Amino acid sequence: MGNITFSGVVALFISWFYAEGALGESNTFTPEFFLILPIWAIGVLLMWRFVSKNKLENTSYPKIILSNTLLWLTIPIGLKFAFQFI
């Protein structure tokens, strides 16, 4: 749960940063960067499904690391989709 919460906060901050424009430009707002959050939410749902189907005692350590890494990879994937819409 801590990994999901921390990655969600990071995804939210990244989407806010890119949606507000560059650091020197305060008059532009691009809401396309909020596409990061639904893609991250899909990753959370997949992570929740993985955790609910497999007990932690029966899951190998590499599978846990891989699932957490895939959750974090949804943030750059969301950025890639957002940059395509701009």
What is the overall silhouette? Answer: elongated
The SS-based structural class is: mainly alpha
- Oligomer state of the chains in this structure: single chain
> Major sheet: size, sense and barrel closure?
none
Strand fraction? under 5%
H/E element order = HHH
pLDDT < 50 stretches: none
How many helices does DSSP assign?
A: 3
What is the total tally of β strands? Answer: 0
Terminal Cα span: 33 Å
Mean pLDDT metric? 83
**Percent in helix:** over 70%
Mind telling me the C-alpha Rg?
A: 15 Å
Give structural notes:
- 71% of the residues lie in helices and 0% in strands.
- The protein is mainly α and 86 residues long.
Could you outline the blueprint of secondary structure elements for this entry?
Blueprint: H1 2-19, H2 36-53, H3 61-85
Helix pairs in contact: 1-2, 1-3, 2-3
In short:
The protein has 86 residues and is an all-alpha fold. The chain has three helices and no strands.
Notable traits:
86 residues; mainly alpha; 3 helices; 71% helix
